Amino acid sequence: MDKSIESHSGPAADRAKILDIIRGIALLGILVMNISFLSGYVFMDEAQKAALSTFASDNIIYQLELLLFQGKFYSIFSFLFGLGCSIFINNASKKGVNPVRLFHWRMAVLILIGIIHIRFLWEGDILLLYALIGFLLPLFSNLSDRRLLILSVIFLLAPIALDLSLHLIGIWPAEFLFELGWKIDQTNGFTEDTDFSTYLYRPELTFSEFIQWQESAFLYRWGDLIQTHRPFKVLGMFLIGYVAGRNQIYLELEKHKPLFKKIAVWGAVSGILLGLAYLYFYNDKLKIQDNILGIYDSIFHNLQVVPLALSYMSCFALLYMQRKNKRWLEFFAPVGRMALSSYLSQSILCILIFYGFGLGWGGRVGPTILIFTALGIFIFQTIVSYYWLQYFRFGPVEWFWRTLTYRKWQAFRK
Fold first, then answer.
1. 3-state secondary structure of 290
2. What is the pLDDT of residues 136-148, one digit of tens each?
3. Residue 408, SS3?
4. 201, burial (CB in 10 Å: exposed 0-12, middle 13-18, buried 19+)
5. What is the pLDDT of residues 349-391, one digit of tens each?
6. Coil vs helix vs strand at 122
7. Residue 101 CB neighbours (<10 A)
């Protein structure tokens, strides 16, 4: 998301473009998974899914999405966020300003954006978590690369130990957030008989009802984030990205080509094999909250995400180093340059397509149609981003973020 890389020019700028490309690809991958939530598919029961005309292919596609997409692209996005933070802090230091103070102010602005997103658009917001975890990054800035990578492994594996420990002691810290969310829902007139899988997709849904629905969104979202130990996963990927940014790997792709090749192969092999094991245990429907055997979900999910995410990024870097691939890969760059605006606009577009006060497609389509819908939204975003960047230096939300970060007006038009 950070645009400080624009200070580079010439060959360096060309090599740094790989960050925009990977960021754009990550946004497409995130949309492919998020659209299943925004459309209501993941909240349908088996009878509702079976009633869809695409039922035969829906489960196959969704299983493939779980294997190849789930967790991988938000991990890539987390990696890039950590990398961008290292660039920002480094550039701030060179300008003679207090890098930590400016960085913390930047995260404070992102908190504001995240709160607006989760309160008025979609409960699946990730920006608020990124900003809060981002506040911690300067604490790690003086550690060696080796120590940062060791810590990243510890954070990434911590969810497995936490799930096992919490099951053994029988305490789930996030439960009180779900209970508070339900109390707000009851105050707003929701009951046990409310069909939450269809509520947002009713033709008679009004915008005021949607805003009322969002009142409890923060509590449910953060209950889920805590229950799935997402802060540890995000911080782990932040630290790996921070190391990559500090060593300017994105500017020296050729130098690291052998490393990319190893990660691409071994990350893919281990990630897919572990991912298949995760699918097996995911489909047994056993949850760690209720059954100790649910620990296998946690083990294989946490072990398979990062290798495949790193493999994807390595593959994109290797492809980009081949001149014949640059042109089609650069298709993803405009959306990547406007990553924050693109991420938020995905929520807006999906709401207008799926919710009842919009087109009302929600609750009526499965992954077979949703994957093409996601592609259509992304292509639309790419076209808009391309033409926007012909006239403006930043995306609209990036400009807002940058202006508040530096607390002075930023030139908007080129």
1. coil
2. 999 998 999 999 9
3. coil
4. buried
5. 999 999 999 999 999 999 999 999 999 999 999 999 999 999 9
6. coil
7. 11
Measured CA to CA, the distance from residue 244 to residue 87 in angstroms comes to 10
Tell me how far apart the 2 most distant CA atoms of the chain are, in Å: 62
Boundaries of every domain in the chain: 4-406
- Residue 236's pLDDT band, with cuts at 50, 70 and 90, is very high
Q: Which two tokens stand for residue 46?
A: 């088996």
Helices (H), 71-144: 72-94, 99-120, 127-134
Regarding pTM above 0.90, the answer is yes
Distance separating alpha carbons of residues 18 and 289, to the nearest angstrom: 41
Q: CB within 8 A of 291, min separation 6: which ones? A: none
Beta-carbon contacts of 54 under 8 Å, excluding residues fewer than 6 positions away, are 365, 366, 367, 368, 369
Beta-carbon contacts of residue 398 (< 8 Å; ≥ 6 apart):
1, 3, 338, 339, 340, 341
For residue 356, the number of C-alpha atoms closer than 13 Å in the C-beta half-sphere is: 16
Give the list of residues 6+ apart from residue 44 with CB closer than 8 angstroms, or none. Answer: 197, 363
Structure tokens at 354: 């799926």
DSSP assigned state of 178: H
**Vertex 314 angle, CA 371 and 268, to 5°:** 65
Residues in a beta bridge with 413 = 392
Return the structure tokens found at 392.
């403006």
